[in-house]
Amino acid sequence: MSSDFEAYEQDFGTATAEVTNKIGRIPKLSGEEKTQLVLNVDKQLEEVRELLEQMDLEVREIPIQSRAMYNSRLKSYKQEMEKLEKDFKRSRIAYSDEVRNELLGDDASSSENQLIKLREERAHLLDNTEKLERSSRRLEAGYQIAVETEQVGQEVLANLHTDREKIQRARERLRETDANLGKSSRILTGMLRSSICNGSVSVLLLASLLIITLLFQRRINK
Fold first, then answer.
1. Burial class (CB in 10 A: 0-12, 13-18, 19+), 40
2. Which pTM was predicted?
3. pLDDT confidence of residue 108
């Protein structure tokens, strides 16, 4: 698992380096070229977020005794991601002096206040957009957890139902065994009584034969 985490680390490093370079170029551009680069960076940032999610999953699979070290590394990567997102947000509303002068021409100084106001409005709008995106991601994560919890609950209920059926079958077998033991006990008791009775009869017969024999011998002796 740690080898997979380290592979994701390498991909993270490569991707963030490219994003940082492109973010630095955004304020120097304008028009369609700037729009395309912004879209490209936004897509790459989404890929970086997915890498962080994969790294988070890998950390959960790492043995507890080694997990603290990887959690610390993951935390630093998340902080780096937050900084990249802030830099990206600022870069989208920022212009280099050259681009600003090109856009505003001779009215650059008189339009400075309007540009500042525009930046503030765009920054506020971007903040709200990012908040909505984060809320949406949290809702999706919460929904996924709820679905997984429901699945676990259904599995537990199914297992409980199966265990209940096993217990019921075991009880039925126990009752049958008790009934068979009772029946066997009665049969053995009857057999023992018969044996005792038969033994008594045999003793009486032997005693009678012995008495008759003795009486017969006495008569002969007389």
1. middle
2. 0.46
3. 47
